[in-house]
Batch of 4 targets.
Target 1
Amino acid sequence: MNESLTNGPLSGIRVIDHTTALAGPYCTQLLGDLGADVIKIERPDGGDQSRGWGPPFVGGESAYFLGTNRNKRGMTLNLASTEGREIFSRLLQKTDVLVHNIPRESSRKKLGLDEVTCLELNPKLIWASITGFGNTGPYAEKGGYDIIAQGMSGTMYVTGEPNHPPIRFPTPIADLTAGIYTALAVVSALYVRERTGKGQAIDTALLDSQVTWLSNLASNFLTAGESPKKLGNAHPSIVPYQPFPTADDWIIVAVGSERLWKSFVAAIDLPRLSEDKKFKTNADRLAHREELVNLLAEHFKKKNSKDWLKKLESAGIPAAPIYKPEESLSDEHLLARGMIIELEHPAIGAFKMLGNPMNFSNTPVTYRRPAPMLGEHTVEILAELRYLKKDIENFKSKKVV
């Protein structure tokens, strides 16, 4: 497929993805969804480390890898060889964006992936680095995984119930957030290039990205000196705003304003809430959080979830069930929103995966390719770079590709 023929927002933009694991591949998958021609470069001897992350494997392919590498062409290239670096240089001159996740500058220079070398070769290039700690500061060049960023950001410390050990968020949110921030930075840099004609470097760190999840907690500390506490499912500034057990399951209730509080009190038929001055305002309710939560918890156990949700939704109170992942992934609303898609893979046939949440009226995201097999498009890309058939065979024999 000619990637330049897509009508996505990034149609005509070429991206080199020299990343492994999740943050980088997730970033470049987003760019691919937006129409960019993404070329994923992997080592000939095994490729992206996440190809081996499993089970589950489907048709020999890692489900993990399949979920973060769609809309890419796959190319193997040994950058430790002279020929490999020459091929890369030729490709880089025809590229708009390079995304890599090599933390050490010495390693980047050895492979010809460092900022100076790349921008000298292609001054219009957007050079994007995604690493654990970034390229400056005392921790620069240290290796880092998602769980390290979660731990050092402070978010793990405040996750979970009081008096319980720190809890890692079950999905790699530091990786995902760094990928999203980098994709946003890339798009912004491309916009700047439209006005100036110049490329630039982007430096994204997993730790920086994860610490932004402190959000309102950080603001409470930085402006008012209030140290965040572990509250489990409760909200630090709003009550009630959490799950409650019912007679048969759990529901979430979110009463985010005084107007909603009045409607909430009327809907659940518990007159004491409106009569007791301890619960009059949100500040009052925060001061008497434990008493209020215990009162509501006992009250909600009197009916099943379906009945409570009907009452609350009729009164305009934000409320919802708590889904298992499989329930969420089959929810009629998410299906109607196109959040579950299907692609055809040469090794496993049709398979489903999460879609992209961005919606455009004129230039929609597209799902053109499944995650590539290792080196699937190497010959195709080399031919586009005007290498002859004999050159390609020579590269293969020398294990350059």
Note: The chain has a mean pLDDT of 95.
Target 2
Amino acid sequence: MNKYELTPEGKEYLENSLPEKQLVDLLKEKNSIDFDDAKQIKNFYIALQWALKNKWVRSTGKEIILLNYPEHVPEQEALEKLSKGEDVDENVIEILIQRKLIKKLVYSEADKMVGKEVTTLTPELLKSGLWKQVSFQKYDVNTPVNRIYPGKLHPYRQVMEEIREKLIGMGFVEAKGPLVELNFWNADALFMPSDHPARGVHDIYMIKDPKTGKVVDNDLWKRVEETHKTGWIMGSKGWGNWNFELAQRLVLRSQTTAVSARTLYKLKKENLPHKMFVIDRNFRPDVIDAKHLVEFDQCEGIVVGEGLNFRHLLGYLKEIAETFGAEKVRFKPSYFPFTEPSVEGVALIKGLGWVEFGGAGIFRPEVTLPLGIEVPVLAWGLGIGRLAMIRMGISDIRQLYSEDLRWLREKEVVR
């Protein structure tokens, strides 16, 4: 049921009577009255308007004549009833609201809860202070409820974001490169020989149309060509040959080291030292099983600057491995066409034993000098998918890209 309260004007008319009631009370004694004498009534024109409308009086223009003295004035009686909290006819209520003599009381949801038992502590209850006037229903924590699955990042994405934050915190700048890449950047600029097994049709995806890309910097290509053929200014013998047409082929990038090569080419001396990383997708033909996919993610990084040495490289690798819960880290000699010396890192992970987590080394002069870099470059590439499997406790790499909603919902947050 609606509740109403009198406005200041309504309270005045409750005490002194409505203007039209005052007018007919004055006429009751004299039966007629001049306009000038009637104007002693406060709000005279309101009084005349309603008295004429109710056909209580007639106006000649100079005087007002009483036609019918009302025994009951519904609006006046309604004001008295409302002041006592009594009910009033809705038609009369509408008239009083139009005349702005009363207003409806508006109760908030919180007000309606006063004296009742509630189950939810709302912001409105807190702001109004009405939480002190309600009683709260006790909760049984053992009562079964429906499970809620809030939105969250894919577990694999969480691992990627964690290592990204780690590297940015270490001062590295994130870089990107094209997925469809020139074979030149994917292999030749990295001093991989034209007849290297990884260049074969079974180890790399070649693009059919268009087959080749453009040579933008002829001088760079000539330096790389001489390095492959004769060792250029390095004092080495190179590989003895170089296939220009193969270097021009467009391929699906097989390693994010291509981004490292592009970064070094663009670096200026005034921008050194420099630390860069990239986390991105690569493609290699492979037989899909629990440990292999034709698409995979790598986390690549380089550090460029004066005075860098092998010990600095091992320090970076150890720092990154510890991010993934490595209790101990070991390194063993390895071979990569573009680094010397080269190592592979293995980490002791609780419950999994020793796990290989990536390869690294110092870029050879055959890589850096043609690109215009004359200072040491530390480089590493991590199989971020393998690291994610370690963190997530899964044994099948295909689960990294799972669309199984049940697994995604129930998989604990990696952090």
Note: The two ends are 55 Å apart (CA to CA).
Target 3
Amino acid sequence: MNLNLSLAPLIALVAGILILVMPRLLNYIVAVYLIVIGLIGLFGGGALHLK
């Protein structure tokens, strides 16, 4: 059985739950998410998948 888990949807799910629980985290979560996506784009790690 192969389980391919994409990283972006997992991060989005965790961020969404955290925002629901603690709405004050929204600015920090968005900032960190954008920084991570920017770094992944710059360094060419666009195909990050967990196996």
Note: Residues 15-44 form one domain.
Target 4
Amino acid sequence: MMSNTPKKDPFRRLLIWTAALLVLAALFATGFVLMDKYQQGERARAVQRINEENQIIIEENMKLRAEQQAKLQTGEAKVWPEAKAEGWDVLDVSEFPLEPGREQAVTRAELLKGGLLLVNRWHPMPSDFTLVEADIKSVGTATSYRVPVADANVLLMDTAITPLDAMIAAAKAAGFEYYIAREGYRDAATQLGYWEKEVARYTARYSGDALTEKAREQVAYPGTSDYHTALSVNMDVYNRNDSVLNKMPFQESDQAKWLNEHAWEYGFVFRFPVQNYPDSQTIDKSYKTGIDLKINAYRYVGKPHAAVMHAMNFCLEEYIEYLIAHPHIAVYQDGILKYEIYRVPGGNTDTTIQLPNNAREYLASTDNMGSIVVAAIY
């Protein structure tokens, strides 16, 4: 008996599936084309929007520039004063804000080593100086004794040793040798020993505040000596084959004359000027430094600050006072901007400072008076 159920045609089913797939493929292709056109349209609209926004910015900048030019022509806009064409010139630009630039992270350790840490009878050492004590090195060892020293225990901050080495090398190249570094960093225990010995000399005649003031005439109170900063070095001359030179007071030597003329070029300044010392032209600054002694101490402050102090005949205390009164200065050499120096609050912790975008490098230091002094170097 034969079945009445019609047989399925496999070829026909294949045609149906093929047609369906072709329809789906066409739909997908159409959708892709439409989506691509949509995305192209979105990109075009985005480009147009960006171009329009950029054009608005350009027009606004051109408008602001035109307004600035108009103010310049009418004398309404203020501009930096013009520097001298020759020599060093320090201009007060405190009424002008620092140009927007980049941020630079600085650590408290970097600020302690930056050169302007002020330590004297009125400003004692900061308690966190221990952060950088490991960076105090033997001058002789660090320079392979290119800088002659009294012994291996003459110590300085690493940031001061390199410029000291360069300065002594330059002096030698100029024909001046036989320098010797007599003393550098003093720790608190050493200073205390000096202090107690000095106090003992006067205990029979003085007491209380009078005794303290008498002792201070010769020795800084522990914690207030500039030698604590590890940035000051006591210089002298010595040649084992020249007894005449060895007996000569340092400031009467040709070596001292060269040092006093050129030390600032390497970032060093004479630390304690007193009347007619280190030379006959020196004006007494003991009322600022608190030290009325003939000490051959040269203090590292960094090239930008030494240039200003040299040009304006400032001791360290006077320089910081000047920056308090004039917190933004521009330093020119032969009409070219060399340094931009500014004082801003802060510096007791790790922080950030603002730098002009075109500054090549910088120095940053705490002044131990609640502020940071930044020198942008061009």
Note: DSSP finds eleven helices and 13 strands in the chain.
